[in-house]
Amino acid sequence: MTHPTTTWSLSGFGDEIDADPDVQLDVLAEIGASQIEVRSAWGVNVADFDDARTAQLRAVLDRRGFTASAVASPIGKVDVALPVEHEVERLRRVIRVADGLGTPYIRIFSFYRDAARTHADVRDAVLERMRALAGTAAAAGVVLLHENEKDIYGDTPEHVLDLVESVGSGALRLAWDNANFVQVGSTPFTDGWHLLHEYVDYLQVKDARAGSGEVVPAGEGDGELLETLTALRDSGYSGVASLEPHLASAHELGGFSGPDAFRTAAAAFRTLTDRIGVTLA
Predict the structure, then answer these.
(1) Which residue in 19, 154, 157, 202 has the fewest CB atoms around it within 10 Å?
(2) Quick check: 253 and 77 in contact, CB under 8 A?
(3) What's the CATH code of the domain at 57?
(4) Which of 224, 228, 64, 244 is nearest to 149 (CA)?
(5) Phi first, then psi: what are they for 256, rounded to 5°?
(6) What's the DSSP call for residue 236?
(7) Domain presence at residue 92
(8) What is the pLDDT of residue 9?
């Protein structure tokens, strides 16, 4: 069976490479990326950017011929017990960053909870906060991309589906992360794709091994990357594939790989896309 030519935009989390945006862009250019996902620059998280910092980064991107694929914010990586307005106010700040960088996409999460509380215990509070965030985003003309991750409400495919369908807003879509599904005991493509594919607007690329949860280059773990990529191709997906390798370290607000490991992650991913006839640009 032949497939029409499919091209995806290759992006990556620049701060996985280095704190300096110019070093980030050197490596991204080397691997053939045209975009960057911005989580931090010069050691400053996007949630703490002021307008001057945003303009400074935009000037670097423009000079280097790059665009921002998304702002990878930490919105929703807080305890659900905090007031609704806490994250709404932070989102308003991040929306200014996204506008300044020229991207409509903002990555978010769906709240931590006390270890003694279940998903059911916090569901109403999570939905109240996610609806408020989605409403704020819709009014500003931006799109929130919920990333599935361990320890938040939207961890498994079933919980992510509940979240996106219950909020029911076009301003809340999904950033799909295979490795994070593995780390909560799900088999990503088998368990989740049929539930969530119609809501997926963005791909974050990393893989992990079942059991240990160790993050590895794409195709070297149990994340069913090849099956997922093939399904994306067959669905007509023409969006972003953003490398988030986490090959050296990971922490609450992100991870790090360094230039060499980032190149390794890019090569592994390109091996898979070449295999299925997807061009990365």
Answers:
(1) 19
(2) yes
(3) 3.20.20.150
(4) 244
(5) -145, 145
(6) T
(7) yes
(8) 98
